[in-house]
Amino acid sequence: MNILIVYAHPDAHSLNAALKDFAVARLQGAGHTVRVSDLYAMEWNATLQAAEIPEQVHHRADILREQEKLLWADTVIFQFPLWWFSMPAIMKGWVERVYTYGFGYGVGEHSDVRWGDRYGEGTLAGKRAMLMVTAGGWEPHYSPRGINGAIEDLLFPIHHGILYFPGMAVLPPFLVYRTGTMDEARFAAVREQLGQRLDTLATTAPIPFRQQNGGDYQIPEMTLKEDIAPGRSGFAAHLV
Ligand code: FAD
Question: Which of 83, 85, 139, 181 could be bridged to 177 by S-S, CB 3.0 to 4.6 A?
């Protein structure tokens, strides 16, 4: 497989850097071709400017390079430390600039009967994606009744809104909690768990998000039909 790792951490000696290096070696060892977009090392310009927003804009070379990598990849891994309950700003800026009109959104027929190719369809359909996230907080803090909110809910805007929206199948995330307690023994265990996830990228079942054009939503409201998940609302209602 062709695998792209979009990676955001400023410190080459961080835990994230060590996990990224491990992932690259593991994937290459399994025969995959790996490319890494190391956003800090690339000094990625994260600021979307007014001149880049128009639909007919001539895209800059840095954007076209990242789009080419996405089209090349069979699987895309987004790796980052959880910062303020989301991805670091540099990665959000990567999404904002790389997901241009006609690439990340504005794809397919938009009419009374069809609201484009998105949520399961689109430019990146057929590809797989997975988040690799480290967090300082404890796992129970991110459990369904945990103070921080359930991790599935916190990651929903990324999983559903950034990965599934342009068509990618989204695998369950690889999560490392309580990073402050990392020592050699725990790091070895984390590597082992990560290795297993990387070995099964092609076979792991994706999160079963509902396809926009799969018949569960009414057009043009884009709300779930009354007989679909009756009485349920919120993020979980969009899971089959
Ligand atoms: P590092 O700080 O590099 O390392 C973490 C630990 O791993 C250290 O003990 C280090 O010694 C050890 N380690 C590093 N490399 C190795 C190695 N090769 N082998 C063995 N051990 C190693 N956390 C939350 O839960 N929620 C938040 O919303 C949140 N927001 C944050 C916002 C900001 C701006 C910042 C700076 C942090 C935030 N955090 C939050 C904490 C953050 O998620 C963690 O600090 C981060 O995930 C740790 O990853 P790192 O790569 O930076 O680890």
Answer: 139
